[in-house]
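Inverse folding, one chain.
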């Protein structure tokens, strides 16, 4: 089964090699995520909160049920996340014009500002570290981005 290319340029055909790659990728992505998360203040917004804010900012208002499905969490977990965001004034709920029994959630201007600041902080940290990499190393990372996006979409 041909599934990709290891760092040395050879084909990954052996299932044990695929599993090793999957394990190493999980660890590396986890480390990057943890380090970026550690840069934010204790008690700051959860990753699920950031993800919901980013989705609402990019895609527009949506129902809690649809958000739970897109974020792949239980409706109860989404309700908790939305309640925390709403309490901080980062999202607002309004009745759905098409179905008054449903609510629609939208990001507020304050939510957009918090999201922009958080992104800027993470981007600044990443850029400072990437500046220490060679041009070839940065190009290698850039070339992997479409594959990482495809991987994320398929999980």
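Residues assigned per position:
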């Amino acid at each position: 089964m041909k599934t990709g290319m290891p760092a040395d340029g050879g084909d990954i055909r052996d299932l044990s090699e695929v599993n090793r790659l999957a394990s190493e990728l999980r660890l590396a992505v986890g480390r990057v995520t943890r380090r970026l998360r550690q840069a934010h203040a204790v008690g700051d917004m959860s990753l699920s909160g950031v993800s919901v804010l980013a989705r609402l900012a990019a895609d527009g208002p949506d129902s809690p049920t649809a958000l739970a499905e897109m974020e792949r969490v239980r409706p109860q977990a989404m309700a908790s996340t939305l309640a925390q965001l709403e309490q901080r004034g980062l999202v607002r709920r309004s009745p759905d014009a098409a179905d008054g029994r449903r609510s629609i959630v939208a990001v507020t201007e304050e939510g957009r500002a918090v999201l922009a600041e958080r992104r800027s902080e993470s981007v600044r940290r990443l850029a400072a570290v990437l500046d220490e990499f060679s041009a070839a190393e940065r190009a290698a990372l850039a070339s992997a981005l479409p594959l990482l996006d495809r991987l994320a979409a398929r999980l």
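The chain is about 65% helix and 5% strand. The helical segments are 15-38, 47-59, 64-71, 75-87, 109-130, 135-154.
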